[in-house]
Amino acid sequence: MELYHASKEIVKYPEIRKAKYTKDFSWGFYCTNNMQQAVRWANRGMGEPIINYYDYQPNENLKILKFSEISDDWLDFIAECRSGKTHLYDVVEGPMANDTVWNYVNDFLTGRITRKQFWVLAEFKYPTHQISFHTLSALDCLTFLKSEVIYDR
């Protein structure tokens, strides 16, 4: 399966970096199978928008968590990760909330809306895809193919 990583640099050797803020699935190396999403992310901020391409060959021996759609389990997992909790999965795959849904997630995490209100607001929003790699064994499933500069059209 081909995956894309948005960046401002060529990333031949993916890394897991601990940053000030955690992401949806905690610290990890994030990719997507959605090229349009990758292009949007690469074009944020200053610098050249670079899309890195990888071949992903899943390893059945790894601990993989996959969310097929947004759900209470997905929301709870994101809430825990965003609050700084870590997990023991090598790979986590699932929906990535678009900016609108992410605002609802933030409102839920901060207590401004209830879970029920979140689902009412998010009902007709369609999240995109993300897959995150959290261990060196998981990163070994990725083979760098190429990179290219792609400006948002």
Automatic annotation (TrEMBL):
Domain of life: Bacteria
The protein's name: DUF3990 domain-containing protein
Species the sequence originates in: Blautia obeum
Species classification: Bacteria, Bacillati, Bacillota, Clostridia, Lachnospirales
